[in-house]
Structure formats: C-alpha cells, structure tokens
Write a structure and sequence with these properties.
- This protein has an eight-stranded antiparallel sheet with strand order 11-12-13-14-18-17-16-15. Strands 3-4-5-8 form a four-stranded antiparallel sheet, with no helix packed on it.
- The N terminus is likely disordered.
- The chain has 321 residues and is an alpha+beta fold.
- The chain is elongated and about 100 Å long.
- The longest helix has 27 residues.
Length: 321
C-alpha cells in the first residue's frame, strides 16, 4: 500500500514559472499525465483533466473549477491527507484534494473536483504536485480575456438599448404623433415652469403620456431617454410627484433654450463663476452658475439653475421664495 499527497502550489519566483512552462504539460482540459510507481512502469497512476472552467472573473483574478480523473494501474493507492508545512500564511496558495480515507482500488477510476483561485501577475504560476514531484502547471491568470468579454458585453447592452430606442422612435406614426409631441413639449419653459412640482405631474402620468420608461436609477433619481436628450427626474415618495427635472444641451441648442427661458419670463437672480465638474469628475473646467426664477400664478416660483461648462446643464424645481 502506498500513500501519496497531492496539492496545488503557487510558485513564488519567475524562475520557477519559466522552468514549469518549459518542462511540464499545461493543466487544461484534455491533459493526461502518467506517474510510474515501479521501475518497469507496470504499476502507476494516470491523471486526466476531464474539464476546466472559469468563473467569478475580475480584472485581477478568477476561479478555476477543475475535474480530474485518477486511474490506478495494477496497484491499490491510499491517498494521504495533505498538510501544509509552511503554515497558514500560504493557505491561499494550496488546496487539499483528498480525504485521509480516500482509497483508489486496483485498476479503478476516481473523479475529483477542485476549485482554485488564479491571480494576475507575471511571476505567479500554479504547479500541480504529487509526492513532491511537479506534474503540470497553470499559467498566471490573464485578465485580457475578461476585459475583452466585459467590453463586448457592455457594447452588446449599448447596441441593444440603441436598437430598442431606434425601434421606438422609428415606430412614430400618425397614430402616435400626439405622444411624440408631448415628449417635445415637456422640455419647453412653459411646461417645465407649470408642471414640475404640480400634483398631476406624477411618475405614472409622465411614463404613460410620453410613452417612456426608466433607463436607469441612481441616487434616488430616475433616468429617461427623450428624443431631444437624456432627462433626469426625481419624485416625491407619496404621491410620486415629479419635483426635479434636469438635462444637458450642447452648443447652439443650449443657447437657444436659455433664450426661450428669458423670452418666457424667467428672471436672473444670481450669477457666479465656478469650477464645473462633468462626466463623473473626469473633466474640470471654469464655468458659470446662474439662478433664474419665474413667478407662478398660484404662488411660489419655478427655479431654473443653469450650469455652463462644456455643456449647458438645466435644473428645474419649485421654491416658495
């Protein structure tokens, strides 16, 4: 009866990795190695990699699920439990494949599944060893495949969303022309002044009347895609009245909309210079912040805050003063 230990150890130097890659077969699906257990090689242990799949990938690591098939040749094998001689500092780099009582009978097969973490780095290499002998190697985790798949996934989502929006916009016909006009009218000074904060201007009514649906949620705000531009809205808890609307316009469209505000009756209350951050703080630029107000017939004011940077950011809400 023979006792063996099997483990997977992360090599700690680039020399070990190069040696492993140059002299050992790569541990991957279909790899087969044979370990002779006597001089004539009439007795031995065959290890076959039935499958190797990856999951929980990130740009730094992934988990490899490996299914190995062990076959004894003309010998009974009693596998001993592997104990880590290096202590707990290296537990992340080793795994036990067998229990102390695992026995492989003569000419019998044994299938085992193990999972290991593969990490990114040019000096890391996983070595499959048995009885102190290196058998196979797993190269360091390459995040490029994950990055490419993630980019492809995001692109697919982007294209799907664009196709859905294009389909919606192309479907505008004589029958739903009224809905299209409602979308356009909503982003005009007259409607924004009188509707934002009004009891009838609810989330349900907006989505139904304008035939729009939320594209995303973030920080308590809801994002919609209108024909003119993306629009952000915030709603009160109960009832869900829209109390805030914001959107960005670029170039001449921004100047034109600000002129429409002034012509409708919004009055400038304050203006100041400011450092404007855009695109999640990717861009900082010197800009201006202006506050305009419009007196409502039923009391209070419609407030429009305009932030001028690379674009015009318009924010509408109601105020008592």
């Amino acid at each position: 009866m023979k006792r063996f230990m099997i483990s997977c150890i992360i090599a700690s130097s680039s020399i070990a990795m190069v040696c492993a890659q140059s002299s050992l077969p790569q541990l991957k699906e279909g790899t087969n190695v044979s370990i002779p257990l006597n001089k004539k090689d009439t007795k031995g242990l065959d290890i076959f990699i039935k499958s190797m799949t990856y999951r929980d990938s990130t740009d730094r690591s992934c988990q490899a699920d490996i299914i190995l098939e062990f076959t004894s040749r003309n010998v009974k094998i009693h596998f001993g439990q592997y104990s880590d001689p290096l202590g707990s500092w290296h537990e992340d780099y080793m795994f036990n494949m067998f229990n102390i009582n695992d026995i492989l009978k003569k000419n019998e097969k044994l299938v085992k599944k193990v999972s290991i973490w593969l990490k990114q780095g040019i000096y890391r290499d996983s070595i499959l060893t048995m009885g102190g002998k290196a058998l196979m190697y797993i190269p360091p985790y390459n995040s490029e495949e994950f990055i490419q798949k993630e980019a492809a996934r995001k692109k697919a989502v982007e294209l799907a969303n664009k196709a859905r929006l294009d389909s919606m916009n192309n479907a505008i016909s004589h029958d739903n022309k009224e809905i299209y006009e409602r979308r356009e009218k909503l982003l005009t000074p007259e409607y924004l002044a009188n509707w934002v904060g009004a009891s009838f201007f609810t989330k349900e009514n907006i989505e139904k009347d304008c035939d729009v649906y939320p594209m995303a949620y973030s920080g308590g705000k809801v994002f919609y895609d209108f024909p003119q531009c993306p629009v952000t809205m915030e709603f009160a808890d109960q009832p869900q009245v829209c109390i805030y609307v914001s959107f960005r316009l670029f170039g001449e469209d921004g100047y034109r909309f600000r002129t429409q505000l002034l012509n409708f009756g919004y009055k400038l209350k304050s203006k100041s210079n400011a450092l404007v951050s855009e695109n999640n703080f990717e861009h900082l630029t010197n800009g201006k912040v202006s506050i305009y107000r419009y007196a409502l017939k039923n009391g209070g004011y419609s407030v429009c805050k305009i932030t001028e940077g690379h674009a015009f950011m318009f924010e509408f809400y109601r105020s008592k003063y």
